[in-house]
Amino acid sequence: MMRQGGSVAKRVLSLCILGAVMAAAGACAEEESENPDPRAYPRSDPDVGLNVALSEHKIVLPKDARGLRFKVTTPMDYELDLTFRTKCGNIASFLQESNFRKRLKDGYAPSIIVGNAVHYGWELGPKERYAGLAEKKSSPQRYVVVSHRNKKTCQIFLYSNYS
User: Fold this and answer.
1) pTM of the full structure
2) Can you say whether the dihedral through the CA atoms of 51, 53, 58, 64 is positive or negative?
3) Three-state SS for 101?
4) What is the 8-class DSSP label of residue 147?
5) Secondary structure in 3-state letters for 17-76
6) In angstroms, rounded to a whole number, what is the distance separating the alpha carbons of residues 141 and 79?
7) How far apart are CA 87 and CA 150, in angstroms?
8) How far apart are the first and last CA of the chain?
9) Order of strands across the sheet with 153-162?
10) What pLDDT, in 10s, does the model give residues 88-140?
11) Which residues contact 117 (CB under 8 A, 6 or more apart)?
12) Looking at CB atoms within 10 Å, which of 47, 69, 71, 154 has the fewest?
């Protein structure tokens, strides 16, 4: 009779362990869920769409923006990492419509953009071909680098953060 009780206890213990493992796997799967937008980088918050993030970070994309990639990070800091290509002639209106107050400084790349370039594989290009700005005292804090790819096409690299 004890033997049978022991096997029942083992079964109960096995079911408890299995339940704990499945709960942990479910929690991990929930953490690992991906943003459904194919332009999103891995681990981008699946609950915040690009249009919402752009609006909340006060970014107005040029109509011809292409090659767009992004990542939204929440809840500790609300961050937006963004890159896209556009005609170089659109840069001034992009900065104005997105209410950037500072001017681009030739050969300048904020360290946060340089770090993101390493992380995401962004190619800023040689210093002679890019310009950047940092708005550290604004809300959100925003950083931009514009890199001239050729005479007509520019690549924008942006980081925005509400902390």
Assistant:
1) 0.79
2) negative
3) coil
4) E
5) HHHHHHHHHHHHHHHCCCCCCCCECCCCCCCCCHHHHHHHCCCCCCCCCEEEEEEEECCC
6) 9
7) 10
8) 63
9) 66-73, 78-87, 153-162, 141-148, 130-135, 105-106
10) 999 999 999 999 999 999 999 999 999 999 999 999 999 889 999 999 998 99
11) 109, 123, 124, 157
12) 47
Q: Can you give the residue ranges of every domain in the chain?
A: 1-32, 50-162
Q: Provide the residue count of the chain.
A: 163
Count of Cβ atoms closer than 10 Å to residue 100 Cβ: 18
Choose among 23, 39, 26: nearest CA to 81.
Answer: 39
**In whole angstroms, what is the distance from residue 100 CA to residue 134 CA?**
9
Q: What's the one-letter identity of residue 23?
A: A
Q: Which two tokens stand for residue 55?
A: 């609006």
